Automatic annotation (TrEMBL):
Residues 334-402 form the DUF5110 domain. It comes from Aegilops tauschii subsp. strangulata (Goatgrass). This is Uncharacterized protein. GO terms for biological process: polysaccharide catabolic process. Keywords: Glycosidase, Hydrolase. GO terms for molecular function: hydrolase activity, hydrolyzing O-glycosyl compounds.
């Protein structure tokens, strides 16, 4: 659950309309085997009457500025204050909030924006801010001293709050920011990324445009490997070894392995992926470490799934294909995949316990060491030794010996008892391997891989999507970046030399969204240039058309122009259009809402108002102390609203067709102002797009 579950992005709250009864919702999720992880950010909205802000102020928990007053920074709720997690007293205050929050049925928490990150141009808080840290970690210091550990200390406090609520349950905490030692409190996620091939290469492939079939195969494969992965986490807990390791861990002396970024180790299991847009993992040449590495699958090979290898000398425990962990029990059939080494031997380990709680610390677990060995062509597989007081469940044991090329021979027995079976002759092995390789080749040839995203052709494509566009004509000078949501990052009125929009490339300026959530699709997609003169590295034009794919067969198209018949006016005509809506939908898309959001830079915030005549005829003025105002129904502006700067004597008039706009939003920041136009929320078809056409003009006040 991202921050949209909150009431106005206020941490530890729920939106009363969309999440009226979170406990019942979570109970429903549990009934189908799902867990719920809820986001908490460190930024607390500065708002009297909000219980977290009031309680934090009373307990003096906020990070201070150099002058001793609370530091205020802008994040998703607007102006925010930040807990000083360097103090144990303040971590305890936060932990108690977490404890109470968990009572709503929360299964886990993910901490975001905890570098700490801001939405302002500085991206984080000033180094001069003051932390009142405990003496044992450095005492009172400025922010530069504690910056790198802030996220870890927040995760620690969140972890401790979950323990407060239930000492018998293991906390699940996910953190974006961490430091050495943060693995004691939380897992780490790598933050947001863009849906382009450059970012995809930094992760693993098969994420973009997944189809249902390969998703199911990947999920079932992961659940089958869960006994092994769970064992790796236990070993990591005891010895500190990484669960997932880079390939060179298998042979540190081979320096070539250090260059490989698409292959990794899960213990003795080697996972080879492809992040190339036009090649499946089975088509890539994979460099393997020295030794025996035998390929295998679960009858699920697919061009868009990784290739799996098991190291010779290893035994891999494998579970049943389940839909969620609630379906599994210790009495389920257990499978062992065996890869013999050059001496005909193999060994492996399996850790089992209740799956939650801390009984394992008191010996309530079962750690089984399995061994396999060949004597006179007969393979014996048995339990070498065990640890823990948990009784071995009565269950069937399925054993498969890997032969190479994906071929294997199998036998069945009872777990805990010794199992024997005869190895095939060398001729039979060769025949089995050849047959398996042929079957795999034929199977992969019949499977259609996930289609790659269409690459724009010619100059109106790859090169120009990375080109800064300059619109320059009449009274206006605009800068547009197609590669980050087509954002307008600068809008300068030439006669008055006034700059009304200004942003970093990553945030603010002029943005558009395709949903009611703050950062819904439409703000981060790479836009293609559809029309415009495109010969120059910095395009100068009076008009341009941009188009971005927002998924589900939908595109967000934007025509930006300085009107030739009235060069005092900038016009932006935006629409969400259905291009290829999926079958079975009746030709209609998912619910979408076109949102136009412009962030105006304010040089004189206290001297600025938003003025308009409402549809109901009333005269309205909205000033800085109004905070956030949503205008609906008869309170909407009747076709235009004006940003008036009384100090400079200038006004920015924004005109629109009020029939295309269902809501208008005004949100004041410390030095800027967000003004938003919202369309209706509805599905669209090829014949019924959503559209908002609006204009800007600067006038004398």
């Amino acid at each position: 659950m991202d921050i949209d579950y909150m009431d106005g992005f206020r941490c530890f709250t729920f939106d009363n309309n969309r999440f009226a009864d979170p406990k019942s919702m979570v109970d429903d999720l549990h009934s189908i085997g799902c867990k719920s992880i809820w986001m908490l950010d460190p930024g607390i909205k500065e708002e009297k009457g909000y219980f977290v802000y009031d309680g934090g102020s009373e307990n003096d928990v906020w990070i201070k500025k150099a002058d001793g007053s609370p530091f205020i920074g802008e994040v998703w709720p607007g102006d925010c204050v930040f807990p000083d997690f360097t103090s144990e007293r303040i971590r305890t205050w936060w932990a108690r909030l977490v404890r109470d929050f968990i009572s709503n049925g929360v299964d886990g928490i993910w901490n975001d924006m905890n570098e700490p990150a801001m939405t302002t141009t500085t991206k984080t808080m000033p180094e001069s801010n003051i932390h009142r840290g405990d003496a044992d970690i450095g005492g009172v210091q400025n922010h530069s001293y504690y910056h790198n550990v802030y996220g870890m200390l927040m995760a620690r406090s969140t972890y401790e709050g979950m323990v407060m609520y239930n000492t018998e349950k293991r906390p699940f905490v996910l953190t974006r920011a961490g430091f050495i030692g943060s693995q004691r409190y939380a897992a780490t996620w790598t933050g947001d990324n863009l849906s382009n091939w450059e970012h995809l290469h930094m992760s693993l492939s098969m994420v973009l445009q997944l189809c249902e079939e390969v998703c199911r195969l990947a999920l079932l494969r992961r659940y089958r490997l869960l006994p092994h992965i769970y064992t790796l986490f236990y070993v990591s807990h005891k010895k500190g070894t990484p669960v997932a390791a880079p390939l060179f861990f298998a042979d540190p002396q081979d320096t070539e392995l250090r260059k490989i970024e698409t292959t990794f180790l899960l213990g003795p299991l080697l996972v080879c992926a492809s992040t190339l847009p036009d090649k499946g993992a089975h088509e890539c040449a994979h460099k393997l470490p020295n030794g025996i590495w035998l390929p295998f699958d679960f009858g699920d090979s697919h061009p868009d799934l990784p290739v799996l290898y098991l190291r010779g000398g290893a035994i891999l425990p494998v579970g049943l294909p389940i839909q969620h962990v609630g379906e599994a029990s210790l009495g389920d059939d257990l499978s062992l995949l065996v890869a013999l080494d050059e001496n005909g031997k193999a060994e492996g380990v399996l850790f089992e316990d209740a799956g939650d709680g801390y009984g394992f610390t008191q010996g309530d677990y079962l750690l089984t060491y399995y061994v396999a060995e060949v004597h006179s062509s007969v393979v014996s597989v048995k339990v070498l030794k065990t640890e823990g007081s948990l009784k071995r469940p009565k269950r069937n044991l399925n054993i498969s010996i890997l032969l190479g090329g994906g071929a294997m021979i199998s036998s069945r027995g009872v777990d805990g008892e010794e199992v024997h079976f005869t190895m095939p002759s060398e001729f039979e092995v060769s025949s089995l391997v050849a047959t398996s390789e042929l079957d795999l080749k034929e199977r992969l040839e019949t499977i259609r891989p996930i289609p790659d995203m269409d690459e724009p052709s010619g100059q109106e494509g790859t090169e120009l999507s990375k080109t800064l566009i300059v619109l320059k004509s009449g009274d206006w000078f605009l800068k547009i970046v197609p590669w980050i949501g087509g954002r307008i990052i600068s809008m300068t009125h030439v006669p008055s030399d006034s700059q009304w929009l200004h942003s970093r490339i990553e945030i603010h300026g002029y943005e558009e969204y395709s949903g009611t959530e703050y950062r819904s699709a439409g703000c981060i997609e790479e836009y293609k240039i559809v029309r415009g003169h495109l010969e120059q590295s910095c395009v100068e034009e009076s008009k341009v058309c941009l188009e971005g794919d927002i998924g589900g067969g939908l595109v967000l198209q934007r025509h930006i122009s300085i009107l030739t018949d009235n060069p005092k006016i900038v016009q932006i005509d935006s629409s969400i259009e259905a291009r290829s809506v999926g079958p079975g939908s009746g030709g209609f898309s998912r619910l979408v809402c076109l949102r136009v959001r412009h962030t105006f830079t304010l040089l004189h915030p206290t001297e600025v108002v938003v003025a308009f005549t409402a549809i109901n005829g009333s005269k309205q003025e909205i000033s800085l102390d109004s905070g956030e105002v949503m205008l609906e129904g008869g309170l909407r502006p009747n076709g235009e609203w004006t940003l008036v700067d009384r100090c400079s004597g200038l006004s920015m008039v924004n005109r629109f067709d009020h029939r295309q706009v269902s809501k208008c939003l005004v949100h004041w920041g410390t030095s800027d102002l967000n003004m938003e136009l919202w369309s209706d929320e509805r599905p669209v078809s090829k014949d019924t797009p959503l559209r908002i056409c609006h204009q800007y003009e600067v006038t004398q006040t």
